[in-house]
Specification:
The protein has helices at about 40-50, 100-110, 115-125, 140-155, 170-190, 200-205, 225-230, 235-240; strands at about 5-15, 15-25, 30-35, 55-60, 65-70, 85, 160-165, 190-195, 210-215, 215-220, 245-250, 260-265, 270-275, 285-290, 295, 310-320, 325-330, 335-340, 345-350, 355-360. The protein is of the alpha+beta class. The chain has two domains: about 5-235, 3-Layer(aba) Sandwich (Rossmann fold); about 240-360, Beta Barrel (OB fold (Dihydrolipoamide Acetyltransferase, E2P)). The radius of gyration is 25 Å and the shape is elongated. The mean pLDDT is about 90.
Length: about 375
């Protein structure tokens, strides 16, 4: 399967920029996810790749075939791009059987009837739907319809498979199951895949790499581990997982030290944080604290050397089944933390390792 290359992509609607200088490469056989909140530009990017939208400028190519190169008049039409596209709505023809829904794109490509049957049965078998080939869409569950839509997307062996939030219509338990077999299917077929979602769990569990979009710009591209452990910006840190973002100022940055000391706003409390390049005394910074990386302890508990201890007040505690979620006040700053243990009392200590703190220069 070929790689997909998107370079310097820009797109606007009615003078409003929705994509600004988008660049990424999807490697051969890779599962690549475009992740971000609603309106960030991820679906518009996918539509540009599919040929459903024309960029204002930039280049899109798959392998050696150029789909778009700066001029909308030279854009390859969608039907000539050999891309598989699965929509959120599944877009199955209700008056056609499942087998005929899959056969239709093959018929349009003038594939022989014998070959159509072979390819249709092969695709349905891959998604465990061969035994339902003669049913109609209304006779299937939502999960089954989704599998049929995916089978139709791969039946003609496209160069790249494009998936636009295909799991969003399923309930939570079915989404969990669908993620497992979708990744298994993608690995079995070995197809280069671009997946659009706003769901972080989908992105983290399915993807080889993730591209995080914010406000029409690409904030970071990396493995799920890199995106979560070392988010490039405060926006990425705030969007991925649950992360407290606290304003502060570096009050001590020893030249040879591994950490810097940050004063947190007007709380009077301080954190030692692993330093980043360019960190200096007097610099305004934002410290990111992931909720599950904060250890809660009683006021009398003693922390190990080198661990930050912050004093907080419990505002509210919620039981979620697997853990307790705490809303805390840190000298007027609100913080969310998680713990497997129910802590009693209003006063509590927060134990935080310097390496678990994310440090960002504050931009104005």
């Amino acid at each position: 399967m070929p790689e997909l290359v998107v370079e310097n992509l820009k797109k606007s609607f009615a003078g409003n920029a929705v994509l600004e200088d988008i660049n990424f490469t999807v490697n051969d056989g890779e599962f690549f996810t475009l992740l971000g909140p609603s309106g960030c530009g991820k679906s518009t990017t996918l539509s540009c790749v599919a040929g459903l939208e024309h960029p204002d400028s930039g280049t899109i190519r798959v392998g050696d075939q150029i789909f778009f190169d700066g001029d909308p008049r030279t854009a390859v039409p969608p039907e000539s791009r050999n891309l598989g596209l699965v929509f959120q709505s599944y877009a199955l023809w209700p008056h056609m059987t499942i087998a005929y829904n899959l056969a239709l794109p093959l018929k349009l490509r003038k594939v022989s009837k014998a070959e159509q049957k072979r390819l249709v049965d092969e695709a349905l078998d891959k998604v465990d739907m061969l035994h339902l080939r003669d049913r109609y869409p209304h006779q299937l569950s939502g999960g089954q319809q989704q599998r049929v839509a995916l089978a139709r997307g791969i039946v003609y062996a496209p160069g790249v498979l494009l998936l636009d939030e295909p799991l969003s219509n399923l309930d939570a338990k079915m989404r969990d199951q669908a993620r497992i077999w979708l990744k298994s299917l993608q690995r079995e077929v070995g197809i280069t895949t671009v997946y659009v979602t706003h769901d972080q769990i989908e992105a983290m569990s399915l993807s080889d790499r993730v591209a995080v979009f914010m406000h029409g710009r690409l904030q970071q591209v990396g493995t799920p581990t890199a995106i979560y452990e070392t988010p490039a910006t405060t926006e990425v840190a705030g969007f991925i997982g649950r992360c407290n973002l606290l304003e502060g100022q570096i009050e001590e940055a020893p030249a040879e030290g591994r950490t810097v000391r940050v004063e947190l706003g007007t709380t009077g409390q301080r954190l030692h944080v692993v330093r980043r390049d360019g960190a200096h005394e007097g610099q305004n910074v934002t410290v990111g604290l992931r909720s599950e990386r904060i250890t809660l302890a009683g006021p009398a508990d003693v922390a190990d050397d080198g661990v930050n201890v912050l004093k907080a007040t419990v505002k509210h505690c919620s039981y979620t089944g697997a853990r307790f979620e705490y809303q805390l006040s840190l000298g007027g700053l609100d913080i969310i933390a998680e713990s497997p243990i129910r802590h009693e009392g209003e006063e509590i200590n927060l134990l935080i390792r310097p390496e678990d703190c994310l440090l960002y220069p504050t931009t104005i």
